[in-house]
Amino acid sequence: RVLSCGLKDFCAHGGAEAAAGTAGDKRVPKIASVVGILGHLASRHAGSIKQELLRMFHESLGSSREHHKATVPFLLQLALMSPTLLATVSPELVDSLKPPVLNQLHQHFSAVPRDELEGVVGVVVHLLCHTSAGALRTLRFLLATAAP
């Protein structure tokens, strides 16, 4: 419920533009609350949170519904704001990025304006640089994907 409400608020206040850093400050307290609640819940429910984050990610790729288009930027924003959430989900996320999922991601972002896409790519690079959990796995994935 927390993630669903957070996504709904994220969509209402800028979605992908917000993740790229171009939205107003109105949405910051709500997403900060989502991060705080998830951080608190993570001590006892880390597995459930991880499972839901991954489910949201994969479900959003196969859908053209408006709130699903904002799911990946929303999840990136959560990861930026919470190293704990990033560390919880990043190893399994990397494992799930098989060619069909990468193709879905490509299709998902093909219609995004270039400036927004550059912002999202910048967030991804920032997260990669600040990921310690599964760093070797992530580096191997990047190398294998870039030069199969």
Structural account:
This is INT5 protein. This protein is mainly alpha-helical. It has one domain. Helix content is 79%, strand content 0%. It is globular, with a radius of gyration of 15 Å. The chain starts with a helix and ends with a helix.
Mean pLDDT: 82
Principal-axis shape: globular
- Beta-sheet strand percentage? under 5%
Structural class: mainly alpha
What is the number of E strands? 0
Low-confidence stretches: 20-27
Oligomer: single chain
**How many separate domains?**
1
Instruction: Give a short account of the largest sheet.
Output: none
Radius of gyration: 15 Å
Order of helices and strands: HHHHHHHHH
Helix content: over 70%
Distance between the termini: 39 Å
Total of helices: 9
Question: Topology of this structure?
Answer:
Elements: H1 2-12, H2 16-19, H3 28-61, H4 66-69, H5 71-81, H6 83-96, H7 99-109, H8 114-129, H9 135-146
Task: Put the structure in a nutshell.
With 148 residues, the protein is mainly α. The protein has helices at 2-12, 16-19, 28-61, 66-69, 71-81, 83-96, 99-109, 114-129, 135-146. It has one domain (1-146).
For this entry, give a set of tags.
148 residues; 9 helices; globular; mainly alpha
